[in-house]
């Protein structure tokens, strides 16, 4: 399916999305230990993260790579993110506080950009996923975009993830900015809700469902929203991503999409990632984080942080 452009300016969308005001062929993942390439060195708290970039001039594209590092004092004191590839190469941000549940987006110190805000984030014991609205980057300092990344910046975890031999399910949350036409009315703003993932490590495939609501940033009205994907690939190294065989849904209709994620924790206790879904009804770009349902407790931290 040919991707369609996003129906509105993404920076305005991302800022409206701040504040929680409502609700390739098959790959058989080998058993045993797999190194997660997006995970981090616990000794330094630094590592590469993968993600999705959406700009005001086109549909979201996966393949974003960045390096995250803690600010002095550790995880709770914020982090620096430096983007390495594509139109965001050379852009960086130093953020001092969490923004996923804030009433207003915290502005970060921008590097090679005019302004950067941390607009969405989710964090667990091992994983982190965040969305950054960036203004004024590029050769002419006139590009705007929403960059989402996932990473595991430290927490003393192993650099290796032991993938289960069979299957696992994960439940958690997702946050996004987006738009949806519902009953003839267009809603633009923050989207959030519950997320469920089913990973079949024997076949190397994965599916997911998203159920929540979109809250219009202007009127405050909300509409139900559902989205999902099936037959994504679990690749070597514990990364998961879409291929030509992956099917996406958005608002009850077939959609195009981008997906980039990874399993985190010594035993793949957490799954975190970034996504962009869209079709004629609208689209959304955001972050997700889920916990292995066989675990005894919810892994999501109540106060998001790097």
Give me a quick take on this structure:
With 306 residues, the chain is mainly beta. Helices cover 2% and strands 56% of the residues. The protein is globular.
Tally of strands: 20
Uncertain spans: 1-12, 17-47
Count of DSSP H/I helices: 1
Query: Sheet bearing the most strands, described?
Result: 9 strands, antiparallel
- Architecture per CATH nomenclature, i.e. the level-2 architecture of the largest domain: Beta Barrel
CATH topology term of the largest domain: Porin
Structural class: mainly beta
Straight-line distance between termini: 36 Å
- Seen as an oligomer or otherwise, the chain set is single chain
The averaged pLDDT comes out at 80
Residue share in helices? under 10%
What would the principal axes of the Cα set say about the shape? Answer: globular
Radius of gyration equals 18 Å
Strand content: over 45%
Return the CATH class of the largest domain: Mainly Beta
Q: What is the element string, with H for helices and E for strands? A: HEEEEEEEEEEEEEEEEEEEE
Count structural domains.
2
Core attributes:
306 residues, mainly beta, Porin, 2 domains, nine-stranded antiparallel beta sheet, eight-stranded antiparallel barrel, 1 helix, globular, disordered N terminus
Describe this structure in words.
- This protein has 306 residues and is an all-beta fold.
- The protein folds into two domains: 25-30 and 159-292, Porin (Beta Barrel); 42-151, Porin, CATH 2.40.160.
- It is 2% helix and 56% strand.
- The strands form three sheets. Strands 12, 13, 14, 15, 16, 17, 18, 19 and 20 form a nine-stranded antiparallel β-sheet that branches.
- Residues 1-12 and 17-47 have low confidence and may be disordered.
């Amino acid at each position: 399916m040919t991707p369609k452009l996003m129906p509105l300016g993404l920076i305005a969308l991302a800022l409206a999305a701040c504040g929680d005001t409502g609700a390739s062929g098959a790959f058989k993942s080998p058993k045993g230990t797999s190194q997660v390439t997006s995970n981090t060195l616990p000794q330094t708290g630094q590592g590469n993260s993968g993600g999705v970039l959406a700009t005001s001039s086109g549909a979201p594209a996966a393949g974003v790579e960045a390096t995250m590092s803690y600010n002095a004092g550790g995880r709770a004191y914020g982090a620096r993110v430096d983007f390495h590839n594509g139109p965001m190469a050379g852009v960086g941000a130093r953020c001092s506080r969490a923004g996923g549940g804030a009433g207003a987006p915290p502005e970060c110190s921008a590097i090679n950009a005019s302004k950067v805000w941390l607009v969405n984030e989710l964090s667990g014991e091992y994983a982190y996923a965040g969305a950054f609205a960036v203004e004024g980057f590029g050769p002419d300092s006139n590009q705007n975009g929403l960059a989402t990344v996932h990473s595991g910046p430290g927490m003393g975890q192993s650099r290796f993830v032991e993938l289960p031999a069979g299957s696992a399910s994960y439940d958690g949350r997702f946050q996004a900015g987006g738009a949806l036409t519902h009953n003839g009315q267009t809603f633009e703003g923050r989207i959030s809700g519950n997320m469920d993932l089913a990973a079949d490590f024997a076949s190397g495939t994965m599916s997911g469902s998203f159920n929540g609501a979109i809250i219009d940033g202007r009127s405050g009205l909300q509409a139900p929203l559902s989205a999902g994907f099936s037959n994504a690939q679990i690749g070597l190294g514990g990364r998961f991503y879409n291929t030509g065989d992956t099917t996406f849904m958005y608002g009850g209709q077939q959609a195009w999409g981008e997906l980039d994620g990874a399993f985190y924790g010594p035993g793949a206790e957490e799954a975190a990632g970034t996504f962009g879904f869209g079709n004629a009804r609208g689209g959304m770009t955001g972050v997700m984080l889920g916990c292995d349902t066989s675990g005894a407790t919810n892994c999501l931290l109540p106060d998001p942080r790097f």
